[in-house]
Amino acid sequence: MSVFEGFRFRHVSSPIHNRDPRIKFVFVIALFVVAILFTEFIPLLVLFFLPLPFVWVAGVRRQWLRSLRGALFLAMFIFVFNFVFGYLYKSYPSTSSLLEYSLAMFLRFLVLVESFSVFFLTTSPDHLSLALEQTRVPYEFTFAFTTAVRFVPVLAEEAQTIMDAQKARGLELERGNFLKRVRNYIPILIPLIVSAIRRSLELAEAMESRAWGVTPKRTNLYVLKIKLGDVVLLALSIVLLVVGIYVRYFVPIPQLSTFLPPLPF
Amino acid sequence: MALIEVKDVFFTYQAGVEALKGVSLQIRDGEFVAIMGQNGAGKTTLVKNFNGLLKPTKGEVLVDGVSTRDVSVAKLARTVGFVFQNPDHQLFSETVEEEIAFALRNFGFEASAIEKRVTWAVNLLDLVDYRKTSPFMLSGGERKRVALASVLAWDPKVVILDEPTIGQDYRQKENLRQFIVQLNEQGKTVVVVTHDVEFVAECNPRVILMKEGKILADGKAKQILTNTSLALDASIVPPQISQIFQGLSFLGFPSDVIDVSEAKNLLVDRLRELRS
What top-level class would CATH report for the domain B2-238? Predict the structure, then answer.
């Protein structure tokens, strides 16, 4: 669950928190696209360190590290898979270049997680829905989205209670082989899903009894405006994208192994 | 020997809330205990320490002489059955009998024993007609009974009921009360966590009053529920019978009456005296 910990927003004010969520999203997407463009280790290493100043300025280092730690397991998985299958199918000229490629894939996953983590850590759900609304997304979708985000901690708590209730009836989650362990989660998932559906029906009734959707045109107390900082961030995103594409197509990317002594095997 | 022994237990949740601040108590075999107190007093946290769902941050809980730290929840659950507040947090099977058999399978009972115990449990809680029904099709009170049956089926020494009376109508509550009293008379240790003063007054158990993670008082229901200042301190109100008798104390009535039939007898005796 610690991956999700890195996506939970806390209310603070910082130059990063105060940026327009739309522009922040553009930045994250730019980072995302550039990360997808490369499969080499060195540019991905640069991309990995790129969001660090943002994390620093926003003061969300602890949560950000926690989300990275949570993603580490999956990243290791990606590394091992790439390495093992690359080795079996001999798709690389040497072990060192295969190792570098696997490491690059490992890093690419971390870059994707960290960029989204920074976005969600520094953007309040209210801001996010405001941004969606102002980009003319229908209010029904915006509302559904914010409600989903808002109910994640509630569901997590409920899952914990259900786990306790089933453990008290002798259920041992960690027992048995892989298949048995997956099956162990059925007594947890069914009550969780049933109660989530019940809750959503109740929520719908509560919304309707409070006249949800009566006025077709909604107004907002706060309106998002593009400020100087946002323009700077937008410019930065464009530069990142342009440089990324340029390097990808016109600059030969050095291999790490050209700088290091060859591996002994 | 005490069946459950709590030795100076402290418990702090991961979020940093200290819910128990030095609780010590003993529950003997066959006792009937009600744990009462305001919201957030630490009642549920305390009973979750009884079956190892929570392990004390400091101090120790012994169940049948074994520290809860040394055994798994599944092991402890064999001795300490826990009925959760909301039955919807545990029901998941296709039929009521499957639901009751779930725990029995977990504890490794044999097929013939499972069949016998399921039949016993559905009879006990008047669920025979629903054996093949999905628990999700039942009413709230019936679901609660299924949850209770699914715990009683493995015959744990101790049964813990967390807020058993919430959302139940008077008749269901009365049935439940009689059922619990009967269980206790047959020798089962019963622990009830509740806010319901009237319910406790009619059961007349040992009452443990909690406030802010500590035990405020521990004694017979008669003494504790009629102590107005103590009750107010724990945010509960003395039962109505007790309020009447405290108001009548100037006529020489005892002020520690909580039981309706005892109250009736006292009043009838007085009226007879006056008439003669």
Answer: alpha beta
A-contacting residues in B 59-78 (Cβ below 8 Å): 72-74, 77-78
- B81 with A168: Cβ contact below 8 A: yes
ipTM > 0.90 for the complex: no
8 Å CB contact of A168 and B78: no
What's the 3-state SS for B73-129? HHHHHHHEEEECCCHHHCCCCCCHHHHHHHHHHHCCCCHHHHHHHHHHHHHHCCCHH
- CB spacing of A167 vs B81 below 8 angstroms: no
Residue A212: closest CA among A132, A142, A130, A126: A142
pTM: 0.76
C-alpha distance from residue A162 to each of A166, A188, B46, B71, B144 (Å): 6, 6, 18, 21, 15
Q: How far apart are CA B215 and CA B23, in angstroms?
A: 6
β-strand pairing of B58-63 with B66-67: antiparallel
Rounded distance, CA B145 to CA B172, Å? 10
* Tokens describing residue A199: 């809750």
pLDDT in tens, A63-105: 888 888 888 888 999 999 998 988 888 777 778 888 888 999 9
Structure tokens at B201: 């007054």
* Residue B90 sits at the chain A interface (C-beta within 8 Å): yes
Residue B106 and residue A171 in contact, taking contact as beta carbons nearer than 8 Å: yes
CA B216, CA B214: separation in Å to the nearest integer? 6
Contact assignment for B102 to A169 by CB distance below 8 Å: yes
Closest to B97 in 3D by CA, of B111, B126, B118, B112: B118
CB B150 within 8 A of CB B104: no
